[in-house]
């Protein structure tokens, strides 16, 4: 099984690199052609906070050291210490999902959150993302730009997660990323998604998160609804969390410092990791072709 995964993944990488050959620098292409060792996730992916069982039976992951190579050398992250797991092809409409290690600062109260208050922070949040784009551009040697918000920060009280979607460009080529924080009894778990369809609207973004979140099973007694009196409560609520993450002051809570790289995924991700996990090569080429055409359009990035 592992040999089959490796073989298909290798062919996928070749197809993907060929499709993007006109768009990327040679050092990136050389790295993309390195060997990767795809791992089956038929029994689910064990995370620090629970287990993720992909809807797609052909989904796969990579060894941690190989994920680290990708996020540091190709995405421009300063470290991979916060990476928990990267899953390729987890569901029909998601190319990839990346989980970061959970934050355990305490239960996040939703009480203070209002959409109006969140909107008031948008200008400051945008400035932080533009700074992040500048930092990543310096690290990767590319022109990285934050274009705008596809979905502004939103709290889904029903399902217990905070999320947003942003548009970016990498050397003029557009991409869209979805970032979410899954709330639980002890804090939150960052879950980032690269969708197959970069034209998703507000409802489509939410549905994609909910669909993949349904594959996530928290450790026993650790769900958001498991909170009981006496549990540790975070110093800031949901709105404060949003501000702290981006280095923005909210109320009396001082920022925890700007996150140097708030960019969960980059164009490089599509070059190095297969777009659709282990499908027939015909369908695979179709997916790559669709991405190729999409990159000829307008801009977006994260």
Please, could you describe this protein's structure?
The structure is a single chain. The chain is an alpha+beta fold. 34% of the residues lie in helices and 23% in strands. The chain has 9 helices and 11 strands. The strands form 2 sheets. It has an 8-stranded antiparallel beta sheet, with helices on both faces. A 3-stranded antiparallel beta sheet has the order 2-3-11, with no helix packed on it. Strand 2 and strand 3 form a beta hairpin. The longest helix has 19 residues. It is globular.
Backbone CA Rg: 19 Å
Strand order of the largest sheet: 1-4-5-6-10-9-8-7
Shape: globular
Helical segment tally? 9
Return the string of H and E elements.
HHEEEEHEEHHEEEEHEHHH
Number of strands: 11
| Overall pLDDT confidence | 73
Assess the beta-strand content as a share of residues. Answer: 15-25%
Classify the helix fraction into a percent range. Answer: 25-40%
pLDDT < 50 stretches: 7-33, 249-302
Summarize the main sheet: 8 strands, antiparallel
Structural class: alpha+beta
Oligomer: single chain
What's a quick, concise take on this entry?
The protein has 302 residues and is of the alpha+beta class. 34% of the residues lie in helices and 23% in strands.
């Amino acid at each position: 099984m592992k040999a089959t995964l490796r073989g298909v993944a290798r062919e996928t990488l070749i197809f993907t690199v060929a499709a993007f050959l006109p768009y990327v620098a040679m050092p990136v292409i050389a790295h993309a052609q390195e060997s990767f060792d795809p791992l089956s996730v038929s029994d689910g992916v064990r995370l620090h906070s629970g287990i993720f069982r992909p809807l797609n039976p052909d989904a796969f992951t990579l060894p941690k050291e190989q994920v680290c190579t990708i996020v540091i050398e190709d995405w421009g992250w300063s470290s991979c210490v916060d990476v928990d797991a990267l899953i390729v092809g987890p569901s029909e409409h998601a190319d990839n999902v990346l989980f970061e290690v959970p934050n355990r600062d305490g239960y996040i109260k939703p009480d203070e959150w209002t959409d109006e208050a969140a909107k008031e922070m948008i200008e400051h949040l945008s400035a932080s993302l533009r700074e992040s784009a500048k930092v990543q551009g310096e690290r990767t040697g590319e022109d990285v730009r934050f274009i705008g918000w596809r979905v502004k920060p939103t709290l889904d009280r029903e399902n217990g997660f905070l999320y947003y979607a942003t548009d970016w460009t990498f050397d003029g080529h557009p991409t869209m990323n979805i970032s979410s924080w899954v709330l639980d009894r002890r804090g939150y778990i960052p879950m980032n998604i690269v969708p197959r369809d970069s034209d998703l609207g507000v409802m489509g973004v939410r549905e994609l998160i909910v669909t993949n979140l349904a594959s996530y099973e928290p450790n026993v007694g650790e769900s958001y609804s498991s909170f009981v009196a006496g549990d540790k409560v975070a110093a800031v609520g949901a709105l404060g969390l949003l501000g702290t993450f981006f280095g923005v002051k909210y109320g009396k809570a001082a920022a925890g410092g700007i996150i140097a790289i708030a960019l969960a995924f980059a164009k490089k991700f599509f070059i190095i990791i297969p777009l659709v996990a282990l499908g027939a090569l015909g369908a695979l080429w179709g997916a790559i072709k669709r991405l190729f055409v999409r990159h000829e359009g307008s801009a977006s990035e994260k």
